[in-house]
Each structure stands twice: as C-alpha cells, then as structure tokens.
Amino acid sequence: MGCSLRMRDRRIMPLAPPSGNPLLTPGPADKIICTQTISSVEPFCARACLLFAQPTRLDEALDLAARIRPLVLAGGTDLMVGASADLGPGPVLDISRIGELKGIAVADDSIVIGGGTTWSELVAAELPHGFDGLKAAALEVGSIQIQNRGTIAGNLCNASPAADGVPPLLTLDGELEIQSAGTRRRVAVAEFITGNRKTLLQPGELVTAIRIPRQLAEGRSSFLKLGSRRYLVISIVSVAALLVPDRSNKVIEARVAVGACSAVAQRLPQLEAALVGRVLDASLVDAVKTEHVAGLAPIDDVRGSAGYRKDAARQLVREALLAAVEGRAGGIA
Ligand SMILES: Cc1cc2nc3c(=O)[nH]c(=O)nc-3n(C[C@H](O)[C@H](O)[C@H](O)COP(=O)(O)OP(=O)(O)OC[C@H]3O[C@@H](n4cnc5c(N)ncnc54)[C@H](O)[C@@H]3O)c2cc1C
Q: Is NADP one of the keywords (predicted)?
C-alpha cells in the first residue's frame, strides 16, 4: 500500500523540539524551519521530514554539519536545479547567512576569498590583474540573478566538468580551506576535484575559503568561453591563461587551463613550460602546438563533438594567451 501524505506543516521549530526525533535535537542554529510531511499511516512517511537550518555563525554551522550531516546549501543555484534528486527528505544546512564565509581579504602573501562569496561580490571587488580572468568567468556564470546567488565554493563543490570558475582558479594555484568541527585542512583546487561531480569533501566539512598566492595574483590573466550562444550558456570549451613577466618582460610563470574538455578541468603543463622564458608579446601564441592539447579527453554530446572541442580548445588557448598579453580579460569567444 502506498503512503498517504495527508498534510504539510510549515513552521519554525522551537530550539527545544519534540523528543524522539534524532534529527531534531536542540542545536545552536538561530532557527530550524521544519517542513514536515506528516502521515499517520506509515512510519517511513514520518521520516519524510525536511529540516532546514540557517545559522549565522560558522561555529554553529560546523556543529550542525558534524551532528546531522546535512546537505549543504549556499546559493542553491546548482542544488535547486537538481532539487528532486538532491533535496530529498534529509536535513538541509543553508550557509548563505554566515558572514564569516563572505568577503575577500588581502594579506601579504595571499588573497583569501570567503567560500560563500558570490560571483557578483567577486566582480565588484578591487583585485589585482591576476584576477581578471576569474572575474571574466564570473561575468559568464549564468545570468546576473545566478551571479547574485551562486558562490565560488558552490561552483567548486558541484564539480561540473564545465564549471567556469575552475580553469581560472587552477591558473591561480588556488587552494581550498576546508573545515569541520575541530579540523581544518588545505587542499589545492587541482587535487580537490577528482572526477565528474566528485570531490575530496568529506561529510561534515565546509569549504570556508579559497586562498590565492600573491605572486600569481599580480600576473596578467584572461578567460574565454565558447558556447552555442552569446548569453546564459554552458561552456563547450573554456580556457583560462595567466602570465607573470619579469622586469625584462620575459615570462617567468605561465598557467593555462582548459575546462569542459575532460571530466576535470586540466592545466597544460607542456605548453606552460614552452611559454616560460619567452618575451611577453603576441608571438607567444606561436608556442601553442597540437600536442599540447593532446591530453584532453572531451566527450561527444549535444553541445559539440569531441573532435570539435579539441580543435576549438587549441584555438581558444591561442586567443586566451593573446588576450592576456594585450590586457583583455576575455569573456565569450
Ligand atoms: C540558469 C543557470 C545557469 C548557470 N550557468 C552557469 C555557468 O554559465 N557556468 C557555471 O560554471 N555554472 C553555472 N551554473 C551553475 C551554478 O550557478 C554555479 O555552479 C554556482 O557557482 C553554484 O554555487 P551555489 O552557491 O549556488 O551552489 P549550491 O547550489 O548551493 O551548491 C552546489 C554544491 O556545492 C555544495 N556546497 C556549496 N557551498 C559549499 C561550501 N561552502 N562547503 C561545502 N559544500 C558546499 C553543495 O552542498 C552542493 O553540493 C548555472 C546554474 C543555473 C541555474
């Protein structure tokens, strides 16, 4: 017999909730809003309870994350799209009101972006030119509404092969700060994403910040995205480039990363090595060879064939390098 869902009850739960439900033990969250599907018929229906916690302090969030192992929701722009699959009956921890996860701090050796910083907040921040590429990517994440809600950590944790934030953060040698109640660790962006929608994030952990070394932040950078239309488009190929010259205008650090052409966005180490030592001018594009993109493993899908993606990647790499040389941040190719 199917279960009968007789009533939906939406209310703010008191901090001393009814006993007997292990998910509703009193916690430090400001409020726990419970949308509870109540059934008097079958016990499993009574478990179909969506707990929604919205703390304003990081320690509260970490405590809840450790105790109830919730689904973490930041801007919700990825989660809500897959809502039927992702937002099941389990508890949800909304971290969007935690001030400690917001903002960008500039230190001597690094620039630290709060994990809950939205794309719009990043675009509005005054940052060195090494961030021009990341800002150009931010401006192409969906629409302005999506940029106002979507966060940088959400983009990384969702781990889509086409995530636009990943290639620029790879070129910036980004490192995630990850916390749980009582632990703290750092993981390079390059290691954090392990496959299509797979990361090293463990249950109970939150990405609290992304740290960028200062030296790379002073470079010249760009981001280019190829899509099937001009606006609100998923990348068929995306490329980020970052070049740091010395005083004689020779490249001393080069980073090039390609997104949407493999399960995880990849840097092109052989090309990067070929760029170091060259004069930072338009002739840099001559260094790009077909073999530099040979390691990409794009898929055939509705947006483009694997062959098209590989050809496009090579061309986009050239254009992204040129944009960085000329001080153009990029955007849609
Ligand atoms: C119409 C539309 C267009 C879009 N266009 C683009 C696009 O062009 N390019 C692009 O790259 N993306 C695009 N996206 C996807 C999405 O907007 C971005 O990936 C965004 O950055 C996700 O951030 P969020 O805060 O909304 O993540 P959420 O949806 O809140 O969360 C995503 C995942 O990350 C986890 N998570 C979030 N924050 C943390 C944290 N601090 N610690 C631990 N786990 C966390 C969540 O549990 C979830 O698994 C689009 C989405 C929509 C709906």
A: no
Instruction: Note whether 255 and 274 are same-domain residues.
Output: yes
Asked if residue 178 belongs to a domain, the reply is yes
Counting ligand 1 atoms within 8 A of each CB, the residue from 52, 120, 157 with the most, and so the one to mutate, is 157
Tokens of 157: 């944790």
Question: Is there a domain that residue 2 lies in?
Answer: no
Final residue before a domain boundary, out of 196, 215, 234: 215
Do 262 and 318 belong together in one domain?
Answer: yes
- Pocket lining: 295 vs ligand 1, CB cutoff 6 Å: no
Q: Which domain holds residue 268?
A: 220-332
- Which one-letter amino acid corresponds to residue 25? T
Nearest residue by C-alpha to atom 37 in ligand 1: 154
Q: In the chain, how many domains are there?
A: 3
Q: Which of 102-111, 168-177, 222-231 has the highest mean pLDDT?
A: 168-177
Higher-scoring residue by pLDDT: 46, 187: 187
Is there an atom of ligand 1 within 6 Å of 260 CB? no
CA 186 – CA 176 distance, rounded (Å): 5
User: What three-state secondary structure class fits 263?
Assistant: coil
Can you give the C-alpha Rg of the chain in angstroms?
Answer: 22
The string of pLDDT tens digits covering residues 24-54 is 444 444 445 544 433 333 333 334 456 889 9
Cα 76 to ligand 1 centre (Å): 6
Same domain, 130 and 41: no
Q: End-to-end distance of the chain based on CA atoms, in angstroms?
A: 56
Question: Which atom of ligand 1 is least distant from the CA of 116?
Answer: 41
Tell whether 321 and 226 lie within a shared domain. Answer: yes
- For residue 233, how far is its CA from the centre of ligand 1 (angstroms)? 15
